[in-house]
Amino acid sequence: MSLPSQAEYVIIGAGIHGLSTAWRLAENLTAAGESIDGRIVIIDKASEIAAGATGIACGVVRNNYFQPAMRKLMAHSVSVWESDPEAFSYHANGYMQISCESMREDVKQIHKEQQAIGYESVFIEGEEESREYMLNMFDDWQAKGITSVLHEKPGGYANNVKAMEGLSKKVLDLGVTIVLDTEVTGFVSAGEGQRVTAVETSNGTIACDKLVIGAGPWVRDFWTMLGLPSQIELKDLDGNVHKNVDMWVFWQLEEGVLEIPPETLVTNDGKVPPVMHVDTDAPLYSVVDGSLITDKLWGIYYKPDWGFGGIQGGAAPWKVPTPVDEVAIDPYGPASTEFVASKEFPEMWVSALAHCHKRFEGMMDKYHKEPSGGIGCMTADSFPVIDTYNENVTIIADSNHGYKMLGVGCLVAEELLGEKQELLEPFRFSRFKEGKLHPVSNSPYPWS
User: Fold this and answer.
1) CA distances (Å), origin 253, targets 333, 364, 374
2) What whole-number percentage of the chain has pLDDT above 90?
3) For residues 433 and 380, is the Cβ–Cβ distance under 8 A?
4) How many distinct structural domains can be found in the chain?
5) Quick count: other Cβ atoms within 10 Å of Cβ 31?
6) Which of 252, 291, 303, 325 has its CA 20 to 30 A from that of 118?
């Protein structure tokens, strides 16, 4: 479809944030008896929807967050996933956080606050109690040093591209226009920091009243186009002020697939298990030669996934060395080849699977590097920034929490129609200078 000359709402990015924003926006306008014809246009530089981070996401949907604001936001997003599991290719099999002693109190707090918001979960603590709980689910469970288990009953995972195909159908059926193969090259405005009146693209210029940017790891490039600061002032939780803090940090996300029948990982009663996340400081030894991989805190996540065709998952990411200018342009294309996943990841991940389950011993040769993971663009504190700039530009900077946050676009749509959303308030840009940062846990993951 060719690019229209104008639209009331222009949305950059045909991934989870762009599509979900357009979906709820169109739903609300239609419910109010208004016509959608030509009013909402999504543009994307790729030739298909969900071609970036959304298309290679592992698809985990969880509410396992130490931060109260994230927990509330994710409870909302889980409810959106649950609203149409068939269309969203959503599997509500739950999520488990299985942890060592250094994380017990953090996870206990998560459980307590999940109960306060009515999010169903079970918390098991104590080494013997945790081991018994896991053996009741998997008779070959053998992970060492586990002293707590948080079992979230809602949540699970969605098949990444299939879910977006279902979402895009909703969007198209409502009359939204999606224009692909169209790269944004600049913005037209009345002056620095003033309203954006049009978007310049490789296929022409489209005038707009309101602009939404939901571009995943490419957000830094649009941020720069708008003249927003690459370095910021940040007040930490202790009240210390830090000058010239990088607004954006890039991390390499480590993921892969064990190419075996997905049903290899089922519970004792033959059911699909919850998504598994294990954090432990027990020594991890190689399944290749028995050498010590690490005796520091490490973490993995994994699940049987028929979409990926095996056991899919990953481990804690690592920070991409600077400079990252080239990588930021196309985190999933040829420019990112020098930042491929570390050579150590496959051995570490498969060894960790075997550490947890006897059934995965001797399976190093089944590892397969699937297009999954990639490079994530984190904010200064590793949590999302969702705010409005230049008067009419809403930016969804998901800080790599993206795929599971299906509800964020829905909340942004409500704000576009004039109704401020309480769930989004803790994620405004002003929190950096005001010192209203989110608390952090003892997890090995930067976003926890």
Assistant:
1) 15, 20, 5
2) 78
3) no
4) 2
5) 8
6) 303
On the question of pLDDT at 327 being above 80, the answer is no
Of the three residues 378, 393, 416, the one that is the final residue of a domain is: 378
- CB contact at 8 A, 83 and 262: no
Q: From residue 269, give the alpha-carbon distance in Å to each of 135, 245, 302.
A: 12, 51, 19
| 400 within domain boundaries | yes
How far apart are the C-alpha atoms of 22 and 212, rounded to whole Å? 10
Q: What is the mean pLDDT of residues 252-265?
A: 92
In this prediction, residues 313-332 reach a mean pLDDT of: 62
Confidence (pLDDT) at 384? 95
Secondary structure (DSSP) of 69-86: HHHHHHHHHHHHHHH-TT
Per-residue model confidence (pLDDT) at position 447: 63
Based on the fold, state whether residues 60 and 161 are members of the same structural domain.
yes
Question: Other CB atoms closer than 10 Å to residue 189's CB: what's the count?
Answer: 18
Give the integer Cα–Cα distance in Å for 56 and 105. 33
**What pLDDT, in 10s, does the model give residues 347-382?**
999 999 999 999 999 999 999 876 566 778 899 999
Q: Does some domain include residue 166?
A: yes
Q: Over the Cα atoms of the chain, what is R_g?
A: 22
Phi/psi of residue 424, nearest 5 degrees: -90, -15
The CATH number of whichever domain residue 125 belongs to comes to: 3.30.9.10
Report DSSP state, residue 427. G
Domain that holds residue 31: 1-91+156-230+384-435
Tell me, yes or no, whether 440 lies in a domain.
Answer: no
pLDDT at 1: 78
The predicted pLDDT at position 355 comes to 98
68 has a pLDDT exceeding 70: yes
Let me know whether 75 and 100 are in one domain: no
d(CA 223, CA 379) in angstroms, rounded, equals 12
Q: What is the pLDDT of residue 338?
A: 38
**Statement: the pTM of the whole predicted model exceeds 0.85:** yes
DSSP letter, residue 423: G
Assess if residue 447 is contained within a domain: no
**At a CB cut-off of 8 Å and minimum separation 6, what does 124 contact?**
130, 133, 148, 149, 150, 151
Indicate whether 279 and 361 sit together in one domain: yes
Q: Are residues 263 and 327 in the same domain?
A: yes
Q: What average pLDDT score do residues 27-32 get?
A: 96
Asked if 104 and 146 touch (Cβ cutoff 8 Å), the reply is no
Tokens of 187: 């913005």
